[in-house]
């Protein structure tokens, strides 16, 4: 860990996927303001999550990380936050009940506002001919609207990220401790729309069993706190150095730097260069961290990253989030897991079943197939079973709403159906029914683990 390099030192190392701001004074002012604002999370909570991820890496718990691909400021409403939380609580209860394993709940939420992009620019055809503007990089950077004003990176947005994250987290804390997450509410989390689907009915049957079990527990005088509240953690890709650096503070207990903008932060596939600024920054913070590993990652890359990011081999500190794609995971993952395990490196293996499965539908929508998502998770479990190692969790992009962004699943959404309610500003998300379907399938895999 040790002393954090300055922002200037990090930029001198070279950071990928950073916006080009045209007003350095406004950027400096936003960073200075951020440095004065209170932490959004506490270092002690980050340590608590680290211990839970360590348990997941040993197979004593299971990590469920989910939420939007990209949060938006207009989307940070009470209804949206409740819906997102609700679907994750439903998924968690399915996994816990069906597989008898504690679920560590981590939202891609309250900070997931910055996106790496394949291209710095976007070109659209207009009546006046093709127009090229900076790519949308998430609300933390610029606006989605395709105009020069909106696409200009605006440092003021970094402060908006802070305030939006603070209000989301405040609501999440209220929901998770104030009664909404009470297990007695297990039925009310199931909305009308879901209840009428086959998976919704499956869920209702399970919820009725949980009710009976709770009544029994109460009758014998057992009513632990855990029945009434849940632990829920926030996470995001720590992409924008200005924001993440300004939100890094020295913990008074340990005197170590923590990123206090989210409990867990991760390094994306496009910024995990061993000699890059992101890896350098992450090597100095004490949070539990994730690092994405795509099909181009070698076992030696994984070992070198682990040596830089977790030199003391602290359990729960490092999660490798693999995102190979359904077609590649069975061939690609074994070499990584084998070598990392053989070297005695302590990591939690989590399957991001989304980012290797994206493609453009014939009508232009960016989508994924539900069956590919499921197949990648199955491949992930298969590989770990064959190697005798632990599949510690999954990462999904999902929403609490009934959007139409991913094809397939029980509702058999097809490419034409994507237009019905496609709302994501970057990548497609599982809707509520698809999220629950996945949870039941994963619960089955977990039972066999
Ligand atoms: O969410 C992940 C990335 O930001 C995204 O997949 C990149 O998308 P792009 O290829 O459309 O830029
Ligand atoms: C950008 C993401 O994924 P990746 O870095 O794996 O492409 C993400 O999870 O939002």
Kindly describe this structure.
The structure is a single chain. The protein is an alpha/beta fold and 449 residues long. The protein has 2 domains: 7-117 and 229-448, TIM Barrel (Alpha-Beta Barrel), CATH 3.20.20; 182-221. The chain has helices at 7-13, 24-36, 43-57, 78-99, 148-151, 156-177, 192-195, 198-219, 241-246, 277-284, 299-309, 329-342, 370-387, 432-448; strands spanning 62-67, 103-108, 121-126, 129-134, 232-237, 248-250, 257-259, 264-267, 289-293, 318-322, 348-352, 359-360, 366-367, 391-397. The chain has an 8-stranded parallel beta barrel, surrounded by 6 helices. The protein has a two-stranded antiparallel ribbon with strand order 3-4. A two-stranded antiparallel sheet has the order 6-7. Strand 1 (62-67), helix 4 and strand 2 form a beta-alpha-beta unit. It is globular and about 65 Å long. It starts with 6 loop residues before the first helix and ends with a helix. The model has no long low-confidence stretch (mean pLDDT 95). The structure holds erythose-4-phosphate and phosphoenolpyruvate (PEP). Erythose-4-phosphate binds next to loops.
